[in-house]
Write a structure and sequence with these properties.
With about 230 residues, the protein is mostly helical. The chain is built from 11 helices and no strands. The protein has one domain: Tetracycline Repressor, domain 2, CATH 1.10.357.10. α4 packs across α5, α5 packs antiparallel against α6 and α6 packs across α10. The longest helix is centred in the first third of the chain and has 33 residues. Pfam families: TetR_N. GO terms for molecular function: DNA-binding transcription factor activity; transcription cis-regulatory region binding.
Length: about 230
């Protein structure tokens, strides 16, 4: 090997360091684009095009395609961030309460309050959840299902009738999650100026009562008012 070859070769550490800096740059830039896309969707609505999102982000559409592939790729990446934030809020709310009843209410309230912060962003990232392979979503639902089962098992144990057991909760968490999401999305579609639209706190209390006590919670409240 001659001296020219030796002098032109680069030490592996130099190459690795440059690659590492480039990866860090791409990660930071990706997060910046996600943040700017969230602001654009919040303002423009969930049907905003890639071109509109790019323009609002003061960059070109090609940049978004380079980092995310297409609109579904952006939706997926944004969803990972949004769902992780939702997860932190809901799980923290459930862990902060001593009683199972208040834990359920707090989790529902946290979910609704987070979604209400930006209904447009919520709709954008959840529009295709059924066909999404989001690991963040799967992990969130799995963790939430386990937590709800554990907290409600305590409730059943403390309030059970003869012959009842926590085994009856086998499908309850999944059903509860479906109800919370369905009710929440119907509520988000209501105009915030609609006088019939309850606050996030009031709706969370109603939903948690429905899940704990069923339709009887409504009839009992009606009887109390009529007396």
């Amino acid at each position: 090997m001659n001296s020219a070859t030796v002098s032109s070769s680069q030490p592996p550490s130099s190459v690795d360091g440059r690659a590492s800096r480039w990866d860090q740059h791409r990660t930071v830039r990706r997060l910046e684009l996600i943040a700017s896309a969230r602001k654009a969707v919040h303002r423009l609505g969930p049907s905003a095009s890639m071109e509109e999102i790019a323009a609002a982000s003061h960059t070109s559409k090609s940049v978004f395609y380079r980092y995310f592939g297409d609109k579904d790729g952006l939706r997926h990446s944004m969803g990972e961030v949004v769902i992780n934030q939702l997860r932190e809020a809901v799980i923290s709310a459930g862990e902060s309460k001593a009683s199972p009843e208040e834990a359920l209410f707090s989790m529902v309230h946290a979910y609704l309050a987070q979604a209400e912060r930006s209904p447009n962003t919520y709709e954008f990232v959840t529009a295709h959840l059924e066909t999404s392979d989001s690991r963040a979503l799967a992990h969130f639902f799995s963790e939430l299902t386990v937590m709800m089962h554990e907290r409600m098992a305590d409730y059943v144990h403390a309030n059970r009738a003869d012959g009842a057991s926590a085994d009856s909760l086998a499908y309850w968490p999944e059903g509860a999650l479906g109800m919370i999401r369905s009710v929440g999305e119907s509520w988000l579609r209501q105009s915030p100026h609609d006088p019939a639209r309850p606050s996030a706190e009031l709706l969370a209390r109603r939903v948690s009562d429905w899940l704990l006590y069923g339709i009887s919670s409504i009839t009992k409240a009606t009887r109390k008012v009529s007396r």
